[in-house]
Write a structure and sequence with these properties.
The structure holds two protein chains of two kinds. Chain A is of the alpha+beta class. Helices cover 29% and strands 34% of the residues of chain A. Chain A has one domain: Mth169, Chain: A (2-Layer Sandwich), CATH 3.30.1280.10. Chain B contains five helices and eleven strands. The chains are: A alpha+beta, B alpha/beta.
């Protein structure tokens, strides 16, 4: 089966986010009020061949932990969708 | 016999020649090692220099930690051999798990290219053995991602074990606890954001980096014996 994988990385709670803080500070100057808690992450998309959803999820999780995120400061959400159910 | 120092060159490293020049000027015997090498057996100490290893894609050091040479760096460190990561090299060592914590974008999101004052906090490390505690050194920094961070238990451990090797006097980048450099439990692996190799000649405006690299050569000599 072919899966489309979306990995969304974000900084773990408590880890300072200089990009998010800079954006948040800029917003009122630009006339956007009422926004808080800005956090910046990354979105990484790829396709993955796997026999079933469970193994696709396990594979994507391992790629995340070993490479796509730095577990010291980051966490990730993985979303899978089926592209080809062959 | 002069201490032999391997200066690892990744694709995108750009401070490797400065490191070789500075170390040789201090009586060491430095040579470049390509990141594809799988052995560092001929060296007494290893330096991971500054630059943008593998373009810093994904995160600084995230790809470099998988370079073939890194297994040899790990073995060298595990055997007690001195390993120093400067700037990008520090980032590589944290990504590789050889040093705790991580380096984030600078507070204020500015690339910093300036001279900082750092204070030596311990002489029990491969990079500060010849320095004095409290000694203030004038050393340049040149980074975008030098904002050292770690979780609270790790910070408490680093403090308790006196593993913060150097601190900024005037924190330029938002690093937690003003940390400019740390060492591992064995104190033979050290990473720092400032560039001692760029402060080893009067023509460069400071010779304060010499005491750090001289410490590395002494530590390498001790590891040889």
């Amino acid at each position: 089966m072919l899966f489309s994988v979306l990995v969304e990385t974000r900084l773990r709670p408590g880890i300072a986010d200089p990009q998010g803080a800079t954006i948040e500070r800029s917003l009122p100057h630009l006339g956007f009020d009422g926004i808080r808690g800005v956090r910046v992450g990354k979105a990484i998309r790829f396709e993955l061949d796997a026999p079933d959803e469970a193994s696709a999820r396990a594979h994507a999780h391992e790629v995340c932990q070993r490479f796509l995120i730095n577990p010291v400061i980051e966490a990730a959400d993985v979303t899978l969708s089926v592209v080809e159910a062959v | 016999m002069a201490a032999r120092v391997g200066v690892v060159t990744f694709p995108g490293s750009n401070c490797e020649l400065d490191a070789v020049e500075a170390i040789n000027g201090l009586g060491g015997q430095a040579e470049l090692v390509w990141h594809g090498n799988t052995s560092l057996g001929q060296f007494d100490a290893v330096v991971l220099p500054g630059g943008f290893a593998h373009g810093d894609y994904l995160r600084p050091g995230a790809i470099a930690r998988f370079s073939p040479v890194m297994d040899a760096v790990r073995d060298h460190a595990a055997a007690g051999g001195p390993v120093v990561g400067i700037c990008n090299g520090f980032q590589v060592l944290t990504e590789a798990g050889l040093l705790p914590g991580a380096l984030q974008k600078n507070r204020g999101l500015k690339f910093l290219c300036t001279t900082t004052q750092i204070r030596v906090e311990t002489t029990a490390s491969a990079l500060t053995a010849e320095a004095a505690v409290g000694e203030v050194l004038c050393i340049p920094i040149n980074h975008f991602e030098g904002n050292y961070t770690c979780d609270a238990p790790t910070l408490a451990l680093l403090r308790a074990e006196e593993r913060v090797v150097v601190r900024y006097l005037d924190n330029p980048n938002g690093s937690v606890d003003d940390i400019a450099g740390v060492c591992n439990e064995g104190r033979n692996v050290v990473g720092l954001m400032p560039h001692p190799e760029r402060a080893c000649h009067a023509l460069l405006g400071s010779t304060d980096g010499a005491v750090l690299l001289r410490s590395l050569l002494v530590s390498a000599g001790a590891a040889m014996a």
